[in-house]
Amino acid sequence: MTEQRSRRKRRGAYHHGDLRRALLDEAVRTIRADGVEALTLRAVAARLGVSRTALYRHFADKRALLTAVATEGFRMLREQIVAAWTDGGGGRAGFRDMGRAYVAFAVANPAHYRVMFGGSVPEAGDPDLRREAAGAFQALVAALVAQQRDGLVRADDPTQLAHFVWAVVHGVAMLVIDGQLHDEVTATVAEHAVERIVTGIEARDVSSYPSISWPRATL
Amino acid sequence: MTEQRSRRKRRGAYHHGDLRRALLDEAVRTIRADGVEALTLRAVAARLGVSRTALYRHFADKRALLTAVATEGFRMLREQIVAAWTDGGGGRAGFRDMGRAYVAFAVANPAHYRVMFGGSVPEAGDPDLRREAAGAFQALVAALVAQQRDGLVRADDPTQLAHFVWAVVHGVAMLVIDGQLHDEVTATVAEHAVERIVTGIEARDVSSYPSISWPRATL
DNA sequence: ACCTGAACACCGTTCAAGT
DNA sequence: ACCTGAACACCGTTCAAGT
Questions:
Q1: How distant is the Cα of B35 from the closest Cα of chain A, in angstroms?
Q2: Rounded CA gap, A169 and A100, in Å?
Q3: Which of helix, strand or coil describes residue B85?
Q4: Mapped to the 3 state alphabet, what secondary structure does chain A carry?
Q5: How far is the alpha carbon of B198 from chain A, nearest alpha carbon, in Å?
Q6: Does the distance separating the beta carbons of B160 and A192 come in below 8 Å?
Q7: Angstrom distance, B47 CA to D16 C1'
Q8: Partners of residue B178 in chain A, C-beta under 8 Å
Q9: For residue B188, with 0-12 CB atoms within 10 Å meaning exposed, 13-18 middle and 19 or more buried, which class applies?
Q10: A159-CA/C12-C1' distance, Å
């Protein structure tokens, strides 16, 4: 621990810590602070006080490092939305908090969020990455299933519903961190989207809405 | 015209065409074929048969070129969704086509679409870029206003509604081109999203939905 | 499982001097 | 409004030889 804190090391010594972890953390830190385009392997190594070649003992190349950064991002995202759902006590209130937490994560870590979705990682097939991305998605599905059990969400295929909800929060998050939305309207749009999601997926008595053509019927 | 087609030029000759346009087109072509990360100014110049320094007569730097690429992308996107709306005869059917056209553009030009939103262009303040992005958004607003006039969409603030619709189609588009959605479910999710948008924004008699808390009331 | 040091090919960008 | 040609600083990556 103390060894990881001292960035400069005495000549001739080895790192001896968890270098993979240290490299990953430093990469995340750099990306968060200055964006992906500012990330250079040489600078990461220099800041950790290791040689430039040391990185290749843990990552095949720069893309592999970015894949790990993205994987880490999905893990953090899952933790935060699950915490929001739990702390919110589940149900409709917890689900709203979950949606807000998702957008909040993207807004708090725009550059990191971009690495997760921005295509800088064509290694979309990486098993670890796929597992973590699927894990975050499953947290959403689980919240929907729980609400279905309580009669709060219609009995549609939860995976289908989750895809829709994901698209909305992801779309809002991307537009916000892209600066496409003015600051004044950001919060309003996010709340609006959350409400549209809730009213769009909520359970209701179908028979009382005669004029609405349901998605199932039109597919 | 014919001169622009011959990529290789005789020694000592000038380009004498619309070099700016040629550089932009070649950049778009490269990005479409191989992605942004494969775009190098040297290769673009070489393929056009001009010197590497010629580019700097038209673009301040690489970022300026990418900004122009993004601007061009928004222009193309606007043209295609407006055409879909018009060809679809407006109304609810035209609006569905518009949504499909949006996602279709992203799917057909994933790398280009990413440049428009991927943050590779921190020049978000560029006036031309802002104007074209706003233009595409306005096409969406106009379609919503037209539907409101026909009583097809609720009388909420159209800009607000447009933000929501944009977030949904953008979210779906991003998830699809990111490979987060399996191919089999892509079309289904897109159609589901379009239907959710339509039913989520459609005009209906509020008095007959006593249990629904409307967004306005909760903001 | 790291280190040093050198090297390679490639990049964006600048400059000087032309036409 | 272009051209040539040289140069600079920086990059990811590899290799050889160590401990």
A1: 9
A2: 8
A3: helix
A4: CHHHHCCCCCCCCCCCCCHHHHHHHHHHHHHHHHCHHHCCHHHHHHHHCCCCCHHHHCCCCHHHHHHHHHHHHHHHHHHHHHHHHHHCCCHHHHHHHHHHHHHHHHHHCHHHHHHHHCCCCCCCCCHHHHHHHHHHHHHHHHHHHHHHHCCCECCCCHHHHHHHHHHHHHHHHHHHHCCCCCHHHHHHHHHHHHHHHHHHHECCCHHHCCCCCCHHHHC
A5: 10
A6: yes
A7: 38
A8: 117, 119, 124
A9: middle
A10: 46
| Band of residue A124 on the pLDDT scale cut at 50, 70, 90 | low
B114 contacts A178? CB cut-off 8 A: no
B80-119 pLDDT tens trace = 999 999 999 999 999 999 999 999 999 999 999 999 987 7
Q: What is the mean pLDDT of chain B?
A: 82
| Amino acid identity at B14 | Y
> Chain B contact for A184, CB < 8 A?
no
Residue, of B118 and B47, whose pLDDT is higher: B47
Note the pTM of the prediction, 2 decimals: 0.85
Q: Length of chain A, please?
A: 219
Interface of A with B in 81-120 (CB under 8 A): 110-111, 114, 117-120
Residue indicated by tokens 């249990």: B211
